[in-house]
Design brief:
This protein is α/β, with parallel strands linked by helices. The chain has a 5-stranded mixed beta sheet. A 5-stranded mixed beta sheet has the order 7-6-8-5-9, with no helix packed on it. It has 14 helices and 10 strands.
Length: 319
């Protein structure tokens, strides 16, 4: 009888000893930093927070946007956030630099990058042209194309808008089909098949945005990472089914973060981002990193000296 009571007491004490660790794990907040300022590009995550999908999944998430002095990847390296969105080619460069990353959710299934040339010229005929490129990155495929096709573009870095191009200081500029493309349309730039080069239509259809964590953090928080990914996917699926309500939520984040944009641009962005999530072959939102696109992008970047080695699908996937 005494032994039985002793065993029961030991069991109870063991349970209580374990409780703080369990509670701490449940209470841990995932700070999520999108790679850019508040806009419809990140609508699914805003929806997941606003509609309570993260809370329902049992994960605490706080969305904190980057700043000009602290980009998203810098925050991830310093452990100031636990998850961020990255373009796939950018993620491969970071892995090649020695920072292991895990892709826990892939939202983009198609490439959105374009080159827009001034005065109706074909970008492929403008050798040595001054071409605008984002100062924070994102232009890896364009650099590969310029080298591969011997275009020898002179890259001119810009922060976040199309002013240099509109002012005539550039011969061409990189743009995202969901963002700067529409800014150029609103600025009165004529867009035709002749002066707009779409990478996805010329053998460069490589996936872009996905959600990444450092492998060190992921290995210790697999369950929380899975909950975060599932709830984020639910947010995107809800946004696709309720675009007008999703846009309302986006504009709340835009206003809260004092972003200079308008509802028309954000509506166009959301529509295009949702379109890019549909795989060209399956016609579905798959939310997965495609091994064939990983191989394609990795080999292209290695061939053009942008990676020192091939980065594999297995390195980036959950295993």
């Amino acid at each position: 009888m005494i032994k039985r009571k002793t065993w029961a007491l030991t069991a109870i004490l063991t349970i209580f000893a374990c409780l703080p660790t369990t509670v701490a794990a449940q209470d841990e907040t995932i700070v999520f930093t999108p790679q850019w300022t508040a806009q419809a590009q990140f609508a699914g995550y805003y929806v997941a927070e606003a509609k309570g999908f993260y809370r329902e999944a049992g994960v605490k998430v706080r969305i904190e946007h980057p700043s000009a002095t602290q980009p998203a990847m810098s925050r991830l390296r310093k452990n100031e956030c636990q998850a961020t969105t990255l373009q796939f080619c950018q993620a491969m460069e970071i892995v090649d630099e020695g920072v292991p990353l895990v892709n826990i959710l892939q939202t983009s299934m198609n490439n959105a990058m374009v080159i827009v040339s001034a005065r109706g010229k074909d970008p492929l005929t403008q050798k040595g042209a001054r071409v605008g490129i984002w100062s924070v990155g994102f232009g890896q495929l364009a650099i590969c194309m310029s080298i591969k096709d011997h275009l020898d573009y002179q890259w001119v870095r810009f922060a976040q808008n199309v002013n240099l191009f509109v002012a005539g200081a550039l011969d061409a500029t990189l743009a995202m089909s969901y963002n700067e493309y529409y800014q150029l349309v609103q600025a009165g730039i004529e867009m035709t098949d002749k002066n707009v080069y779409r990478f996805c239509d010329h053998g460069y259809n490589v996936q872009e945005d996905g959600v990444y964590m450092t492998r060190a953090y992921y290995e210790k928080h697999r369950d929380q990472a899975a909950k975060f990914a599932r709830a984020s996917r639910k947010g995107w699926e809800w946004a696709a089914q309720h675009p007008d309500e999703a846009l309302d939520i986006v504009m709340q984040y835009v206003d809260k973060n004092h972003i200079a944009t308008n509802r028309v641009l954000q509506r166009l962005m959301l529509k295009e981002v949702l379109r890019l999530q549909v795989d060209r072959e399956s016609k579905k939102r798959e939310f997965r990193l495609r091994p064939d696109m990983v191989r394609q992008a990795s080999r292209l970047m290695v061939d053009n000296k942008m990676l020192t080695r091939e980065v594999t699908y297995e390195e980036l996937s959950e295993h």
